[in-house]
Amino acid sequence: MVKIRKYRASDRKAVQNVCLDTSVGRNADSFLTRYILTLYCNYYIETEPENCFVAVDENDVPIGYCICSSDYDKFEREFMKNYMPRISGCGLKYVIYTKGEIAAHRMFRKDFPAHLHIDIIDEYQRQGIGRRLLDALFEHLEENNVSGLALICNTNNKGAVKFYEKYGFTLLMRFNAIIEDFSIYGYVI
Ligand SMILES: CC(C)(COP(=O)(O)OP(=O)(O)OC[C@H]1O[C@@H](n2cnc3c(N)ncnc32)[C@H](O)[C@@H]1OP(=O)(O)O)[C@@H](O)C(=O)NCCC(=O)NCCS
């Protein structure tokens, strides 16, 4: 039985593995791996672990997560200071992707100050775990008086688009970064 609980420091490696397994794999080149982990994982588990939830298997090992920043202004300040330098060393393409995501979140920060990333490994998808992770996160954000949350999704990721729309997210905007189309969705808490 999969359980949902708060993230712990001991989950770090397993959460990083879920991040890679659900994106570029564990054998991608070192720049791509560093970019993915820096932008989509490490900021959240290092800087805002209190806003991160994991789905764990019967051995208490994470098989999915929902990791969040509850405050856009804090995210931009801390990310630019402590994380952007790591991405800058990965190449211009990754800098442009990162700045595109940051600019999109900045546009909607007043109504949607929080944002998240959610990933579940293949064999546990379509079992209601994503929905349970979002339920846990939103309950936590509501308790902390966070008014809204945004997320960015590759528009071609049809399964994720269906998942967010089914959950009740609203499309705020579509934008293009290099050759990829992204959609930013919002949810009022
Ligand atoms: C997208 C993701 C987080 C959804 O989590 P999940 O646990 O698989 O989703 P749930 O089982 O909670 O789905 C809830 C509902 O969303 C919809 N849904 C979820 N995945 C879907 C898919 N691939 N295709 C169509 N609808 C889907 C369905 O309506 C589903 O209800 P149902 O199964 O009763 O029909 C998960 O599949 C995942 O991690 N995918 C790979 C990584 C990824 O794309 N992350 C998001 C990046 S933006």
Structural overview:
The protein is α+β, with helices and mostly antiparallel strands. The chain has a single domain (3-188), classed as Aminopeptidase (3-Layer(aba) Sandwich), CATH 3.40.630.30. The chain is 46% helix and 25% strand. It contains six helices and seven strands, in the order βααββααβαβαββ. The protein has helices at 12-21, 30-47, 72-88, 92-107, 129-143, 158-167; strands at 3-6, 52-56, 62-69, 114-120, 148-154, 170-177, 180-188. A seven-stranded mixed β-sheet has the order 1-2-3-4-5-7-6, sandwiched between helices. α5 (129-143) links the parallel β4 (114-120) and β5. The longest helix has 18 residues, at 30-47. It is globular. The two termini are 28 Å apart. The mean pLDDT is 96. Bound molecules: coenzyme A. Residues 22, 118-120, 125-131, 153, 157, 159-160, 162-163, 166 line the site of coenzyme A.
> For the record, what is the CATH homologous superfamily label?
Gcn5-related N-acetyltransferase (GNAT)
Widest beta sheet: strand line-up: 1-2-3-4-5-7-6
Amount of beta strand = 25-35%
- Give the terminus-to-terminus CA distance: 28 Å
- The H/E string reads EHHEEHHEHEHEE
Largest sheet: 7 strands, mixed
Molecules bound to protein: coenzyme A
At CATH level 2, the architecture is 3-Layer(aba) Sandwich
Number of helices: 6
**Uncertain regions spanning at least 5 consecutive residues:** none
CATH class category: Alpha Beta
> Class by helix and strand content?
alpha+beta
In which range does the helix fraction lie?
A: 40-55%
Can you give the mean pLDDT? 96
Please report the total strand number as a whole number. 7
- What is CATH's topology name? Aminopeptidase
Global Rg: 15 Å
The number of distinct structural domains comes to 1
Anisotropy-based shape? globular
